[in-house]
């Protein structure tokens, strides 16, 4: 609000307002051009409203929204929880045996047995164990052996890898903390039985997993050693 300026002298006298005659303003007559323009504005507004409604419900992606398609969960993830109990390790289990996990995905550890299958290669110790999920047709047989040093283990790995006969599915190096500690190879079985063999060496220990291809791939990829 602006301040009023102060003036010197006597205040101005108030004079009585003279009464004036009351008049009523009459609206100006509307010309035909003005009426046409008003009708045009109303029609244009109506057309815009109609077009907006049609677009909202007829144009893709507008007001009508469809629910998103459900995401398919891979079977390997959905069935990762074991449905049967693992077999306990022997009370006198060696440190090598103790590295065997109770389960790999939904495949649980069966009874661990000493094995002499690789006896000719003179391992320090060797064992066989089956990992399964209750369906024997999907069992994976795992052989493992430990040698006195990495060179002896590599010799056995190379011998077993050479004996594999079938189409190679995968191969590469095993790394621990950025260092190469061994190699692996996966080979499909010959014929149409759908079996496969995964062979890998990690330092002084050699593993071999055999069984149905899907089961073998799950076990060897997730095996922690």
Automatic annotation (TrEMBL):
<keyword id="KW-0472">Membrane</keyword>
<keyword id="KW-1133">Transmembrane helix</keyword>
<feature type="compositionally biased region" description="Low complexity">
    <location>
        <begin position="10"/>
        <end position="31"/>
    </location>
</feature>
<feature type="transmembrane region" description="Helical">
    <location>
        <begin position="40"/>
        <end position="62"/>
    </location>
</feature>
<feature type="region of interest" description="Disordered">
    <location>
        <begin position="1"/>
        <end position="35"/>
    </location>
</feature>
<keyword id="KW-0812">Transmembrane</keyword>
<protein>
    <submittedName>
        <fullName>Uncharacterized protein</fullName>
    </submittedName>
</protein>
